[in-house]
Amino acid sequence: MKKLIEKLGAFFIALAMILAVFPTQVQAAATAETWFEAGKSAEKGKDYRFVEDSSSHVVSEIQVMTATGLGFVSYLMTGGVTVDGVSYGTAEVGDATIKLMNDIDLAGKQWVGIGGIAIYSGTTQATYTATFPGSSPQTSDYFYAPSTGSNIVDFKGNFNGNDKIISNLTIQRTYSGDKDGTDDWGISNLSGYNASKNVGGYFLGENYFMLNNDGEFKNVTFRDINVQIIDKFVSTNLIPMESYLTDYYRGSATGFGLIMENHGTVSNVSADGNVTILSSMPFYYGLTAINRGTISNAAMNINVDLLLASDSGHRYAGLQSTPSVKLNDGVMRRYALISGIAGITGEPIPDQSKLGGMTTSSIKNSSVRGAYNLYYADVDTSGYPIYEGLKEFKDAQQLFKLDLLNDTHGYSGSLKGLLTNYELSLVSAISGSGYNSITVDSTTYNIQVGADESYTGAAGSLRGKDLSGLANPLETMSVNYTAEPGSMAKLFSTPAEPVVAKTETFTSSIGGVVASAWTRFSDGAATNSIEIPIYLTTAGDISYKVELNWGDMEFVYDRGSYDAGKGETLPSAGNELGWNGNDNTNNLINVINKSNASVNAKLNLQLDKNYSGAFYKEAGADKTDSNEKDYAGKASYAAGTYLALSSAGGGSDSQNFYLVMGGVPNGNLSNAQIGSITVTVTSQTASTDSTKLTAYLSDDTSTAYMVESDVEVGDVKLIANKTITVADNMTMTLFGELNANGNTITVSNANTSGKLTLHPEFRVIGSAGTVLDSTKMLISGAETLKANGLVWKDSTGNAIADLSTTGLQGDNVKLVYLGSVADYLKATGLSEVYPINSSETMTAGELNEANVLQLNNGAVLTIEGTFTGSGTLQLNAGSNGSVIYNGNTYHGAADTVMIIE
Questions:
Q1: Which of 179, 356, 413, 788 pairs with 896 at a CA distance of 20 to 30 A?
Q2: pLDDT reported for residue 214
């Protein structure tokens, strides 16, 4: 016989989750609306509240309810703001606690930080500067010298986030130094707010959430920070800082930090988002530019892009971190353009004294994550992008390397000079540098850095920095730092992919466990749960190898020859009457899985219409004086159903199948092909829903089950009655062997749109009774079902003669099993006609009733032995098949009932 094998390749399912969070961008200009401006119209009691002394109006707490209310706090710090006829200045609010009462969403407007404000000619510029205790700025007080202002609040109070979230903090600035232009102005010089055109300055004053922390800053989460700073200042704009400081030229040192200076304590603060700075001297400080106090339990997850342009100016004392403010003293500098938590921890100049009497600065129990990319910005003064085009501009630039810089002047304080001569660091994982007595411990980092291969490749390293956490301190400094296990920095010569924060927050005013009482922050849904996906990456290849072995599949059908002398029909020598070849060898198909993964195998059988066949999973038993085997009671296999084979060495990785033939040949044949077996091997496994349903049918519960996807059910033994509802347009397929065990499966759909499919080889064994009760299901496959003893009945209990699909779409269609042929013939009180759709052999027993057989599909019932009892056996009119009994063959006739005697 021809052997046919169909192989299907491996089927792989790949799941991909793309998560991207991009905060809303707001176009900024000199006239852009800010939360500062919105705060001027804030309503007391709605946007904010004061907890204050009724007589002195000293405010102990400023409670913030809305984004407008937080903008009001920024406006309040300008000093002299009148509320209900009371003017609030340093005496009234300088020591207050700012407390968030709700989550705050700052989307839609620019943020102008909490600090002092510079005023020019009565017009508010969006320029915030440090406060200072004296009448004029002193470089020893702050790390850069601020502008002056007559009413600025000297704020030394607290900020309590109250475990709330500030989302979409948006800061977008473009600097050119020209106050009369359309760009932001910035800080112009050290001693005043000289607004002359083309006067350089350090554009630090606007780029922060809060300028100065002298008390506590705690318990707040910043989510989806969006900072974009474009600084157009280059060497042609530079002038000396002061006439006597001829070697210090005012240039563009543009930076961002959430808090520009910390003189107190910062704790329980986390932040995620994106920062992009285009400048000839860009800096990202992280949580704070200078940490002169303590930081604990900070979690930073910021993705930073620095675009470094040529022609930079000096950085002067504001960014100085050596014992002298001079650049030509020969002392090595330790800087970092990107710092995870602090630009500098300790003193910016070692002989400065800290505010508040602190003697030790520290960073503890904190973490840093992020993707940091450094680019060379190939621009001139006319080539700067706008905010919407900043990403496209960035993507078109080369990753940074020193040779690309083209500073046209020889200032040693230029970016190129600092990188060449003073070891300015590109990246510091935790703090850019440390001075005097500082401690950093229990603080981890996991960062990715993208720069040119000269910095990141096998032959290079980040210049001036080994990425161990801190920039190298000077030998004279007292630094206590040990790198935490698990900290790592990955270097790439291509842009590093952003690290996405994985966090969720739930809020509730009443608590409890009811989902509707909670609000999920990310989407505002009323729920207290979140689904967290699990990802897997595998290494190595899955290889599939399946070995098939099969017998000759050469069968003999011996009709026998009549021996007149003996008065009986005798087979040819060595044969049995009927089918020969069912010997566990000739009819064997063996499937062996030699893969390193599980596979599935199934067999399909195609036979000419005169023949039938059945598969068994167990070898037949020996017969007396015969090579043929007896498969009665052996485990059967339903053709067309997948069986799983585990990977090699993992258990049952081999399966035998045995084909047992039936039917009666017409004519004389000599080794003629009468059909074929198709073996299909695949790596596709049964669906999870199919597995769950099979498990449900096999357990001893009696609960209902909802089928909401296409499912298949294989071999099952019912332990209890089962109820199943099939969803609209979903299909439940039954194949394999169902041991009803006296129980019933009830399957229904409310709209006559659920589907029930019966595989042609679906079989039922076990006790007689109703095995399937179907309500409003679209049933297919009933007309091709070859299982014996199955009768369809309508809602009135009458047998359904027409087994077409249309005839089985009414309400309450039942499938009744009459039991095995032998059980049916010896049962009493049965009136149903017993259908036989495939050939079968049985042993005669007692016959008590007038039993009627309906043979279909050319099936042959062979009865061995002799019946006893007073009943009769009939072959129904219209039968297409035959019964062999007591040496006689009874063929079905269209209009005649045959009595089998």
A1: 788
A2: 85
**H/E element holding 38?**
helix 35-39
Q: Among residues 767, 748, 768, 764, which one has the least CA distance to residue 756?
A: 748
Sequence-distant (6+) residues with CB within 8 A of 688 are: none
Residues 6+ apart with CB under 8 A from 373: 304, 305, 306, 399, 449, 450, 451, 495, 496
Cα separation, 510 vs 310, whole angstroms: 57
Q: What are the helix and strand counts (H, E) for the chain?
A: 8, 64
* Contact present, 851 and 872 (Cβ < 8 Å): yes
CA distance linking residue 4 with residue 210, whole number of Å: 77
C-beta atoms surrounding 354 within 10 Å: 15
Q: Is the CB of residue 240 less than 8 Å from the CB of residue 269?
A: no
CA atoms of 117 and 149, how far apart (whole Å): 7
Share of residues in the chain with pLDDT > 70 (%):
76
Cα 170 to Cα 223: distance, rounded to the nearest angstrom: 11
Strands of 324-366 (E only): list them: 335-339, 342-345, 361-364
Longest Cα pair distance anywhere in the chain, in angstroms? 142
pTM: 0.55
Q: Which amino acid is at 444?
A: T
In this structure, what token pair is assigned to residue 416? 């190129």
Name the more confident of 819 and 589. 589
Beta carbons within 8 Å of 416's beta carbon, 6+ residues apart: 310, 312, 402, 405, 407
In order, the DSSP letters of 396-419 are TSEEP-GGG---SS--TTSHHHHH
pLDDT over 70 at 808, yes or no: yes
Question: What b/e string do you get for 167-200 counting C-beta neighbours within 10 Å, with b at 16 or more?
Answer: bbbbbbbbbbbbbeeebbbbbbbbeebebeeebb
Termini Cα distance of the chain: 39
Q: How far apart are CA 314 and CA 658, in angstroms?
A: 89
- Residue 801 zone, left/alpha/beta (φ > 0; ψ -120 to 50; rest): alpha
**CA distances from residue 202 to 119, 218, 313, 387 in whole angstroms, order as listed:** 17, 28, 10, 21
C-beta separation of 44 from 83 below 8 A: yes
- Which residue in 205, 233, 60, 58 sits closest to 131, CA to CA? 205
Residue 151: predicted pLDDT: 67
Query: Residue 762 corresponds to which amino acid?
Result: F
Tell how far CA 586 is from the center of its chain.
Answer: 52
Tell me phi and psi for residue 453, to 5 degrees.
-60, -25
pLDDT digits (tens, 9 = 90+) for 134-177: 334 333 332 222 333 456 787 889 999 999 999 999 998 887 65
Which residue matches tokens 């033939």? 661
Q: What is the DSSP-derived secondary structure letter of residue 110?
A: B
Cβ-contact 812, 774 below 8 angstroms: yes
pLDDT of 196 above 90:
no
> 390 by DSSP, 3-state: which?
helix
How many Å apart are CA 155 and CA 213, to the nearest integer?
8
Q: What are phi and psi of 416, to 5 degrees?
A: -65, -40
Instruction: Report the alpha-carbon distance of residue 761 to residue 734 in Å, rounded.
Output: 9
The pLDDT tens digits for 332-365 are 455 678 999 998 887 655 444 444 445 678 999 9
Q: Rounded to an integer, what distance in angstroms lies between the CA atom of residue 455 and that of residue 361?
A: 31
- Report the amino acid identity of residue 255: G
Mean pLDDT comparison of 45-59, 667-681, 786-800, highest-scoring range: 45-59
Q: Domains of the chain: which residue ranges?
A: 4-11+539-682, 114-152+163-500, 502-531, 688-900
Of residues 175, 88, 59, the one with CA closest to residue 125: 175
Q: Could you give the 3-state DSSP secondary structure of residue 680?
A: strand
pLDDT at residue 515, rounded to an integer: 80
In this predicted model, which residue has the larger pLDDT, 512 or 449? 449
